[in-house]
Amino acid sequence: MNDAENCGSVIVDCAKRSASQKRIRGHGLILTAWIYLATLSSCMVGPNYQPPRTQVPADWACVPAIPATLAEKALARWWTLFKDPTLGSLVERAVQSNLDLKLAEARIRQARSATEIALSAIGPTVDANGTFRRNRSAGSSGVDNSHRTTAVIVNDYQAGFDAGWELDIFGGVRRGIEAADADLQARVEARRDVLVTLTAEVARTYIDLRALQQRISIARKNLAAQTHTAELTRRRFQAGFVSALDVANADAQIATTAAQIPLLEASAQQSIYSLSFLLGLEPAALNQELSAASTIPPAPPATPLGLPSDLLRRRPDIRRAEAEIHAATARIGVAAADLFPRFTISGSVGVRASDFGSWFDWARRFWSFGPSASWNVFASGAIRANIEAQQALQAQSLITYRQAVLTALQEVENALIASAKEADHRKALVEAVGANRKAVALATRLYTEGQVDFLNVLNSQKSLYASEDALVQSTGSVSIQLVALYKALGGGWSENADAAHN
Question: What pLDDT, on the 0 to 100 scale, is given for residue 65?
Answer without folding.
Answer: 53
